[in-house]
Amino acid sequence: MQKAGSNGLAKGLNDKTLETILTYLKGRSSQEHTCETLSKASNLSKVTVRRYLNYLIETGQVTSSIDYETGGRPKVLYSLV
């Protein structure tokens, strides 16, 4: 696990960005989301969104699963706990 910064979050994470992602997920809690859909909805890069999703998984707020039924590259799906 990453070291905590002065705001209590893992180093390099920002409260506002985390809240943006959580607000989106909470508004659509019955759905599963990909990193790409979260990235487009929040106007954040996929790398940034993935970093925050990994943090949310580590803290037990989000779960991930893999969808192999895509016919191509499998997709990672994220949902609130």
Overall description:
This protein has 81 residues and is an alpha+beta fold. Helix content is 42%, strand content 15%. It is built from 3 helices and 2 strands. The protein has helices at 15-27, 35-42, 46-58; strands at 62-67, 75-80. Helix 2 crosses helix 3 (46-58). The longest helix is centred in the N-terminal third of the chain and has 13 residues, at 15-27. The radius of gyration is 13 Å and the shape is globular. The model has no long low-confidence stretch (mean pLDDT 90).
Largest sheet: 2 strands, antiparallel
Q: What ranges have pLDDT less than 50 throughout 5 or more consecutive residues?
A: none
Structural class label:
alpha+beta
Radius of gyration: 13 Å
Number of helices: 3
Proportion in helices: 40-55%
**Separation of the first and last Cα atoms:** 20 Å
The topology string of helices and strands comes to: HHHEE
- What is the total tally of β strands? 2
Percent range for β-strand residues: 5-15%
Mean pLDDT: 90
Strand order in the sheet with the most strands: 1-2
Shape: globular
